[in-house]
Amino acid sequence: MTKDYIRELRRRRGELIAKQELWEAMLKTRIILHKHLFLIGKLDKNNIGKEWIARKNTCKYCRELDGEIRQWDDTFKGKIKFPTAHVGCMCLYRLVSI
Questions:
Q1: Is residue 34 a contact partner of residue 49, using CB atoms and an 8 Å limit?
Q2: Which of 4, 13, 29, 49 is deepest in the core (most CB within 10 A)?
């Protein structure tokens, strides 16, 4: 029983790490795309900000950030520039007009 439990924990941990790595890669790709759009003048940093979007079943910290809007170059609470805020965080951001 104990060996099966340990095996299951390891499997779940592996899935969590893989899911987290994929999520962070997607977010980093979005950030690079948006930075490029600012660089080539398709977006204006003076008119575009970012909004923190938390998932429904999220931690208290991310719930507090949900809906928070900042200028593109500013940080969210806790000096976090972009999601993710912690291991297992599946939050994201979206561009908003400001």
A1: no
A2: 49
